[in-house]
Amino acid sequence: MDAAATAVRQIPRINDPAPDFEANSTHGPIKLSDFKGKWVVMFSHPADFTPVCSTEFVGFTRRWPDFERRGVQLIGISVDSVQSHLAWIDNINSAMGVDVPFPVIADLDTKVSQLYGMIHPGASATTTVRCVFFIDPKQVIRAIIYYPMQVGRNMDEILRVVDALQLVDANAVSTPADWRPGDPVVVPAPSTMEGLKKRKSGQDDGLDVKEWYLSTKKL
Q1: Known catalytic residues?
Q2: Could you read off the pLDDT of 6-35 as tens digits, one per residue?
Q3: pLDDT, tens digit, 9 for 90 and up, residues 117-132
Q4: Is 3 helix (H, G, I), strand (E, B) or coil?
Q5: At the top level of CATH, which class does the domain 3-153 belong to?
Q6: What's this model's pTM, rounded to 2 decimal places?
């Protein structure tokens, strides 16, 4: 099996248990299981002291209070050393006036990166692409986003995904395209003919029925 096929096979999938790990970080040794009971957003970056990654770390840091309010633990990771991470974080603080508050894993041996399929040989054989893993309090992977090295991430979208995941878990609903907090949500479609007829008749109070299979409501 070639390297590309191996990398694809190793990428965890949505609703898989998040692989546990123990690694060195800028906050000392950490394990994923340390954060059981919290939402975790773990994101990889290609390299320290690079321009796009620096803007992302500024972005994550400036939105840190928004992640905290949602009970989310941020964890960064790349294949750089702890010393490189520390020097870069110190430089970001000096140059851009932000103090990075979350741990950054130093994955020199690439064990965590390989475990999560963060190294894509077609992009680079030695550095991680921009991955975002959304891990729920039960340590199940709920969403995954990949970006190429040249495209920086959107913090609003990452927070929107967190909001959507937390909302659907709490209310057994779905979110439509372009959903933002406060927008109507999609309710489950009927699963019986009786339910279909009831939905079409307008007897389901509080619903905006577009079609029997597509109805929304405000929470």
Answers
A1: 53
A2: 444 567 999 999 999 999 999 999 999 999
A3: 998 777 765 678 899 9
A4: helix
A5: alpha beta
A6: 0.92
